[in-house]
Amino acid sequence: MITPTTPYPPSEPYASGFLEVGDGHCLYWERAGTPGAQPAVFLHGGPGAGFSPAHRRLFDPQGYDVLFFDQRGAGRSTPAASLDANTTWHLVGDIERLRDEVMGVQRWLVFGGSWGSTLALAYAQAHVERVEALILRGIFTATQAELDWFYRSGVDQVFPDKWERFVEPIATAERGDLLQAYRRRLQHGDAATQLAAARAWCRFEDEVSTLVFQPEAETGDDAEADLRNLAIARIENHYFSNGCFLRDQQLLHESHRLAGIPAVIVHGRYDMPCPAKYAWDLHRAWPEAEFHLVEAAGHAYREPGVFERLLQATARFARKADTTLALESQTRIQRA
Length: 336
What we know:
The chain is α/β, with parallel strands linked by helices. 40% of the residues lie in helices and 16% in strands. It is built from twelve helices and eight strands. β1 (15-22) and β2 (25-33) form a beta hairpin.
């Protein structure tokens, strides 16, 4: 098998729509690739970041039928930046509804990076019978130790200059608990206070997430950027302030439930938001998963070495379309 080393060409979705999932939430979704090929779902990071058209380029469009969707409050899903009925377990339930009602498949490959890896693990452990394979990148197991590393002491020692800008909006007396200090501003401040906090939150995260790869500037106007920042900051803070609605080390302790699922884990050695120790802990708890610790790479999925490993992983599980399944899938899409 020849595996790619560069992104697949840009492509457009062949179907898109909205799914009402209850609690006032309506999720935006797209399907890209070829009906009847390997079914898959892409779980974006954040939480709150939404997916990007660039994410389609991880998958061979001839070998996959991929569902992309914006999680509750993220991207084009509505209501924007909403925290109501927005927990890990609401999202797990949403994934199941999307599998059944939008994709109409019994099993699929689950791809998740960063927060998406957390959600992928939670979903796979709850619905083992629905997961054909897993591809996980930038492992975040949502333990208190990981949250403390990023928001108490750890990253600040590597990026003291960027940390200083991050804590600047917070009064000195409140800096002992930054998650709660930011929560007060993001949830209860006036519009200007919320926006200033969201900008500082997202700038810090962006600044420490890459080692080599330099992302292109976001397109769109300032208002779009502010809406995106507000959704990311509010939803991330909501999840992290609540331990991502998981028991501490729950995903590690229940990793035995994943036995028998083919899996690939890819992690950058110099990943600052998600230290490699916790990816290693998952590897030790789940040794049958193929594990790649990439040298000279940070957190972003486009880091050199990380991206190539992800392309190799998606190429490994790709499957050309079955004619019968393709016809059934196309009929279902037309009826929707």
